[in-house]
# Entry
Amino acid sequence: MEFSLTDGNGEKFVFPVNPEEVQITRERGYDTVSLLSLGDFDFPQGERVKEITFSSFFPREYNESYCNYNPVPDPQTAMNKLTTFMHSKTPLRLIITGTQVNVLVIITSHNSTFRGGETGDVYFDLTMRTWRDLKVGRINTAAGGKGASTKASRPDLKKTPKTYAVKPGDSLSKIAKLQLGSSSRWSEIYKLNKQVIGKDPNKIKVGQKLVMP
# Structure
């Protein structure tokens, strides 16, 4: 069995002495809601982040009865490596061979202990938490707030042009009076729709869709 941590650059650190035990804490989240006189109710939520802890030591000298490889790293150098891992802004991959533990973690704490009579050896307690990427979605307001979109889209600031379908008996001045409040604005309509109407503003056709100013 091998305990190892690998950083984002592929640098692998193998613990020279396996811990006697590994503790993995799993919890499920929940929200507590108070409903007036009925009291408190717990509503289960998603699984919380797992916590993994174990203890071992870095020996000053190699001993074939408990060391995994030779030569063993200098205890102080090994502790500095854990400190570097802990301060890293990227997750580490924890692998324990012979088990199903192969997860991304961050080191939340590690404590060092020096014991009398064992000069040079450094004992440590290591605590890690599983890491997962946070994916934030943006509510799709164009769909009335239903659903979510992972892509942030810019709001469309362009106004949709208003159109008018020509009816029997219509003229540009009549349309201007109905749609714009003044028959004298017929020329504005004509300028916007000259390609549709043609050279003569008096020859509009039933069914033509005219863009309004």
Summary: The chain has four helices and 13 strands. The first strand starts at residue 3 and ends at 6.
